[in-house]
Design brief:
The complex is a heterodimer. Chain A is mostly beta strands. Chain A contains no helices and eleven strands. In chain A, the strands form two sheets. In chain A, strands 2, 4, 5, 6, 9, 10 and 11 form a seven-stranded mixed sheet that branches. Chain A has a four-stranded antiparallel sheet with strand order 1-3-8-7, with no helix packed on it. In chain A, a hairpin with a 7-residue loop joins strand 9 and strand 10. The relative contact order of chain A is 0.33. Chain B is an all-beta fold. Chain B is globular, with a radius of gyration of 13 Å. Classes of the chains: A mainly beta, B mainly beta.
Chain lengths: 114, 113
């Protein structure tokens, strides 16, 4: 069964709306989780590293004020896309792993901004 | 992270073996070779990983060259459900802490019935 649960799987909303995506590790504690973004026909690009109890680390070019990450517990990280616009439409994917173990990925969230 | 090179696409017939190559000539001694695959509209799925020796699991086999500059993912009997993008990724030994994965463009595997 899935060890990383991501919700919702799909969101369609109007421009200017803020959208929250949840990522949960189901049977292990994840000090670190990762958020990726994938545009059509492209590969996954790392957006940020979510650290439990501390600030997220963002990749170059990713606006931290637009993509808010909260990792308040060892099993939950959230990504909030604030004031989303059509160019933010993408497939957002989270991952988590237990230390050295392989990463487990959520099923992704398809975000469509009208 | 060291770079990997994979063919953009490959085709295979159903129920035949598939060999997916990956070149990683700049691999360092502490880099593990990981393979993930991504089915359409899903998150990536772990397939297999190794360091120096060949590895087998229920999904696939991983053959690693003696100089570690290349590796091959082997699907012993392809099914239509194996159609996916396969990513070969080098991941440095993390000494206990999780590390992000750097995805290249991968190989799109098409399985023909």
């Amino acid at each position: 069964g899935a060890v990383v649960s991501q919700h919702p799987s799909r969101v369609i909303c109007k421009s200017g709306t803020s959208v929250k995506i949840e990522c949960r590790s189901l049977d292990f504690q994840a000090t670190t989780m990762f958020w990726y973004r994938q545009f059509p026909k492209q590969s996954l690009m790392l957006m940020a590293t979510s650290n439990e109890g501390s600030k997220a680390t963002y990749e170059q070019g990713v606006e931290k004020d637009k993509f808010l990450i909260n990792h308040a517990s060892l099993t939950l990280s959230t990504l909030t896309v604030t004031s989303a616009h059509p160019e933010d439409s993408s497939f957002y994917i989270c991952s988590a792993g237990d230390g050295d173990q392989p990463q487990h990925f959520g099923d992704g969230t398809r975000l469509s901004i009208l | 992270d060291a770079k990997t090179t994979q063919p953009n696409s490959m085709e295979s017939n159903e129920e035949e073996p598939v060999h997916l190559p990956c070149n990683h000539s700049t691999i360092s001694g502490t880099d593990y070779i990981h393979w993930y695959r991504q089915l359409p509209s899903q998150g990536p799925e772990y397939v297999i990983h190794g360091l120096t020796s060949n590895v087998n699991n229920r999904m696939a086999s991983l053959a690693i060259a003696e100089d570690r500059k290349s590796s091959t993912l082997i699907l012993h009997r392809a099914t239509l459900r194996d159609a996916a993008v396969y990513y070969c990724i080098l991941r440095e030994e993390s000494l206990g802490s999780a590390r992000q994965l750097t995805f290249g463009s991968g190989t799109q595997l098409t399985v023909l019935p």
